[in-house]
Prior knowledge:
Layout: E1 2-22, E2 32-39, E3 42-44, E4 46-48, E5 61-65, E6 68-79, H1 90-95, H2 109-112, H3 120-134, E7 136-137, H4 148-154, E8 156-157, H5 159-172, E9 177-183, E10 193-200, E11 203-207, E12 219-224, E13 233-250
Parallel strand pairs: 7-8
Antiparallel strand pairs: 1-5, 1-6, 1-13, 2-3, 2-6, 4-5, 9-10, 9-12, 10-11
Helix pairs in contact: 3-5, 4-5
Amino acid sequence: MWAPGVAATLTYDITTPAVIALQIATAGRPDDEALAATVDGAPVAITEVAGSGGPLGGRTHLVTCGRGKLVVTYAGNGPIPAARATAPTALDRIVALRPSRYCPSDRLAGYAARYRRGDERATVQAIVADVHDSLVYDGTATGPTTDAIDTLLTGRGVCRDYAHLTVALCRAVDVPARVAAVYAPGLDPMDFHLVAETALADEWVVWDATRLAPRQSLIRVATGRDAADVAFGTVLSGTVQLVDMTVMAVADGDLPTDDHERPVRLP
């Protein structure tokens, strides 16, 4: 996929020495890429975790720093190769059918039965359409502990809530599903974005119940069972507060038109 530019800047206040795991680099490595960190203007080393980028994750980087103002910047430009071109394996399907922290699908089997259709694709389409129609996008209605059942009951949420509910309902009717964190050209307001993927036949198909950005231009960052696996920043130790974040994603030329009904494959 060609993307003239994706970028992110994260600013943290570090009050005790910290170690932070980051997933902000694109899963496919672009031709021109830069990831850097400073504390109070002084460079800090960032290391890529060996073996990261597997089926349930993106490229993970670790930053270890002392007290001060930590600023992490990422920029990727140019062709970005497909990060995940393989068909779903048996293990992929098993993992993608299990309940997870934010997608308690084992508690939704009775409710989700209403979506069953003659085939898996029609079933998923019915779920995605109903999640889109039933939820109100509301940035104030969700928090770090909100799961798919909370979202179903309140009828409100942000992209991660739409994705979690989509995934949980799909798993509840035996369709393997997972989430993907992405850069999303055209998203407004711009931010990291979370979408759902389902295993249909021999490929992963991406769905976005928010319908806020065309799926054809999404750029994969990380893949996982739910948001816990694909968090852009995870504090492993220390006292840390995220104080500012900016995200940018620009596609080449005009954004594609997406009817959100037809299957789309995320590179």
